[in-house]
Every structure is written in C-alpha cells, then in structure tokens.
Amino acid sequence: MTHPQQTHGEGTERRERIVIIGSGPAGLTAAIYAQRAGLEPLVIGGAFPHVPGGQLTAAGVIENFPGFPDGIPGAELMDNMRRQALRLGARIEDDSAVSIALSERPFRVTLDGGSSVLTDALILATGASPRRLEVPGEEKYAGRGVSFCAACDGFLFRKKRVAVVGGGDTAMEEADYLSRLAASVTLIHRRDTFRASRAMEEKIRANPAISLVLNAAVQEVKGDGRRMNAVVLRDTRTGELSELPFDGLFVAAGRIPGSELVRGQADVDSQGYVVVAPGTSAASVPGLFAAGDVCDPTYRQAIAAAASGCRAALDAKNFLSQLKKTGG
C-alpha cells in the first residue's frame, strides 16, 4: 500500500518542535496525541526495522487489540493508525534516522537521505526485534508456524504440538502460557542448565504438559512449503542430528531493542532498553522520551506500546510548555 511521503534533499536542514522516530503503534499514537496537542509532529517512519508501520505490518490477524471484535490484520491496523495520524495533520516521512546528536540543544537527527532535522523534543519509538536463531527455514516459515510471541499467536496452536526454544525466564513463561492451549509443549535448550529463575524452572519442571529437550540446538526448521512441520535438532555434546515433528515453533532467544541511535548518549539498561523515569516516558536526557518496546522488556504488546506513545506525547507537550516558559 502506498502512502504520501515528504522528501528533502541532501544537506538541507530543518527545525521542528518535536520529532518522532518510528511508525509502529507507539510512534503513530504519539503522533496522533502530539498533533491534537498542536505540536505539529514530524514522524520519521522508517527508522527501525526499516519498514514503515513497524513489525506489526508483518503480523497476521491481531485478535487482542481492543475495538476489533473479529480481529484485524496487523498491516491493516497500522494503515488505519497511519491514516488517522495523517488526517489529523501529522507529517510522516518514510526515511530512516542514521544518527542522533543529543549533546547540544536543539537535538540533531540526521536522515539516510542526507538531510538533518533540529528538534526541541524527540520521541524514540524504534521498537525491539526478536533475536533470530539464524537457521534454515526460520524466516521461510515465520508466520507459518514459526512465531516470536506466544501471547500474540498462541491461540492459533490450540490442541497442537509446539516447541519453545530458549533457556531464560521468557522462554519458560512462553512455555507455561502455551501449556494451557497446546496439546503438548516441548522446551528446547542448548544446555542442561537454565538462565531462568529457580522458581520459574521448578514451575516448568512440575508442569506435566511440558517436556524438556536439553543439550539440543535447532539446526533447521522444515515444512511442506506452506507451513512448518518439523524441527531438526543437533545434540550439542555429540553433534548427532534428530528430527521431531511440531506444528509450531516459538523462538524465545531474547530481543534486541532498537536503541542504537541513543546508546552512549542516554541511559540504557544491561539489555539495551532505554531507561525512563518511573511512571513517565522521560529518558535520562531532558527532552528525550521513549515509547513502546524500545523501553519495555516486559509486556511487548501493541496495546501497551500504543499507551506508552500517548504518555510520551503528553510528557513531551509538558516539557515543551516548560521550555517555552523558561525561554529555552
């Protein structure tokens, strides 16, 4: 689907009151609220993962976003959000931010097209991407048996055989959640010890619906061309290969927050998520705000990202009001 977009030549420089980087649920919700607050936001829509609309555009039917009793395809949901932001007057450019300078005010955002934008406030809504296994078949069957979110896709696997890959709390939480839906759940981990908390490990080991396959690494995801139907495993001790049939594979190997543009300039945690003040979207640099999965390692849901986009826009509005009062 095509959308109107604005472009600016190499070397040009503009001044904006507020710039939003990212056009997923967080970024577009921030744009809607910022525009209604009269801030005339500029959205840089292709910052991460280089697809306008974010990762949700590649999702299937979204069943858990409020207001859509029959569900809605992810691409359609994002298109609706985009059209709403544009109708209200927000400007969206399908370009990528390649660098951000936060050391001086106004902040400078340099775009892939060569132009730069100076801004008094910046909302970072660049999301987080699932860490891939990087094995044959994983991308081919993504969305066709391979999933990266049990809460998002688990309902599609009711009464089916699924596997979860990973050894941390997230993998065990995914396995526990799926055990209430699937016919069977197999947790696959490359070692015989887990990174997860002891309490979570004990809970998983006590669950009769979950079986463990340890010292095993996924070597390949196989299928019939339409959907996956098996996983090839490699014994990490002997190298021996085996094949197990599954209807679904949930990859829980961690996530990579899209905070690379501000790392070294603003506070991030040990995993790379932008640190915000409790109860707000304010990052460690005044005037920088974060929304969505780039600052949320816990919930990872579209509705939570949208809510944080609203919060970021309102926080930015208050910041800009104070800046105007002080003559900044």
Question: Which terms would index this structure?
Answer:
27% strand, FAD/NAD(P)-binding domain, 2 domains, elongated, alpha/beta, five-stranded parallel β-sheet, 328 residues, disordered N terminus, 19 strands
Explain what you see.
- The chain is of the alpha/beta class.
- It folds into 2 domains: 13-129 and 255-326, FAD/NAD(P)-binding domain; 132-251, FAD/NAD(P)-binding domain (3-Layer(bba) Sandwich).
- The protein contains 6 helices and 19 strands.
- The protein has helices at 25-36, 74-88, 150-153, 169-178, 198-205, 302-326; strands at residues 13-21, 42-44, 61-62, 72-73, 91-93, 97-101, 107-111, 116-124, 128-130, 146-147, 161-165, 184-188, 210-213, 216-223, 228-235, 241-245, 248-251, 255-257, 288-290.
- The strands form 5 sheets. Strands 1, 2, 5, 6, 7, 8 and 19 form a 7-stranded mixed sheet that branches. Strands 10-17-11-12-13 form a 5-stranded parallel sheet, with helices on one face.
- Strand 7 (107-111) and strand 8 (116-124) form a beta hairpin.
- Helix 1 (25-36) packs parallel to helix 6 and helix 4 (169-178) packs parallel to helix 5 (198-205).
- The longest helix has 25 residues, at 302-326.
- The radius of gyration is 21 Å and the shape is elongated.
- Mean pLDDT is 91; it is low at 1-6.
